[in-house]
Structures are given as C-alpha cells and as structure tokens.
C-alpha cells in the first residue's frame, strides 16, 4: 500500500496494526466513529532518529512539510483551577496559546503543559502526542487549515511511527472545536 503523502516503506490501515499503537490510541481506533472510515487512518513506521522536522522531511518527503501537524498539550489556569486541552496546528505554525487558546479556555493564564503532565495525562510518549486517543473530557482545539487538508501527518502516541489521517476527521474527534486563528505564522 502506498501512502497518500510522503514516502514510507510500511503503510498499514490503523485497525490492522493496533498492536503497534499505545493503548489510548488503539482504543480510539478500535471504537472509531465518524464520517471517515477507520481504515483511512494509516499507520506509517518511522525511525525516531529522524524525528526532527527538517531531517524527517528530507528522509520521508518534502510534501510532508506542508501536511504535518503538531499536537500540543496546554494548561489554562484560573483561580487555582487548571484546565488541560490539546491544540492541533500545522507544523509551519504555532498555537496562539496566550491569545486564542487562553480566551477559549476562559483562563487568566495559559501555557504549554509540562512534559510530565502531557505524558502522564495522555498516556503517550513526549514527541509523539496525537489528537486520536486524548482524554474525551479535554477540549481539542483544531486549526481550520488542518481540517482542510486531504491527509495530515500526526504523531501516533509513540516516538516511533506516525499516523496519516484525513484532515476532516479531526473536526469529528471527541471535544473537537475548529477555531479560527489558532495557528499563527512562525517568525
């Protein structure tokens, strides 16, 4: 099977390789609902040594630069209460944590969650966090540019391997809110 984007040696529909996925991601694929069939979520084996974006794109395909998204965990704080959420933005942008995210969460302060919090609360490896399999109670803030892509490269929950997912599927995940202005240009 060929990947719709990038150049990967191993491409497998995610429901056929649940043992390659960590528990929360495998459970989300196993119980998948929505207009995009679970078989359209593809797992590609990647080498963690090439995780850096520039090296990754050089190795797996230049077309991935414009079709990759980062999922980051943020913490919004207000009056001693902390709300965790995830943001999904294109890799060529950054999440507007102090503006759009803070306002959406109704927080006085918002920041990236610590590595221990992000991995502990998601059950995923740092550097591989994916929007598929996040805690259902969390808001998932998604930039519209991600939803508009035919396929998007995201983490698989582990440092090894990635998922290729039709962009529109992200708008249908539990807690998803497509939020204008979430991703802002870097630079």
TrEMBL record:
Domain spans labelled YbaK/aminoacyl-tRNA synthetase-associated: 64-169
Coiled coil spans: none
A Pfam entry, by short name: tRNA_edit
Protein name: YbaK/EbsC family protein
Organism encoding this protein: Streptomyces nigra
Native organism taxonomy: Bacteria, Bacillati, Actinomycetota, Actinomycetes, Kitasatosporales
């Amino acid at each position: 099977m060929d990947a719709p984007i990038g150049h990967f040696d191993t491409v497998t529909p995610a429901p056929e390789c649940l043992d390659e996925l960590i528990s929360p991601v495998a459970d989300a694929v196993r119980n998948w609902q929505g207009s995009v069939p679970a078989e359209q979520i593809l797992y590609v084996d990647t080498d963690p040594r090439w995780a850096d974006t520039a090296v990754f794109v050089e190795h797996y395909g230049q077309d991935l630069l414009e079709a990759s998204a980062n999922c980051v965990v943020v913490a919004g704080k207000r009056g001693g209460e902390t709300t965790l959420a995830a943001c999904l933005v294109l890799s060529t942008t950054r999440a507007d944590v102090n503006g759009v995210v803070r306002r959406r969460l109704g927080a006085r302060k918002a920041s990236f969650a610590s590595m221990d919090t992000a991995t502990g609360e998601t059950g995923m490896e740092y550097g591989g966090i994916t929007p598929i399999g996040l805690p259902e109670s969390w808001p998932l803030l998604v930039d519209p540019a991600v939803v508009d892509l035919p396929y998007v490269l995201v983490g698989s929950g582990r440092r090894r391997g990635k998922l290729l997912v039709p962009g529109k599927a992200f708008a249908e995940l539990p807690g998803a809110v497509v939020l204008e202005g979430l991703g802002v240009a870097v630079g």
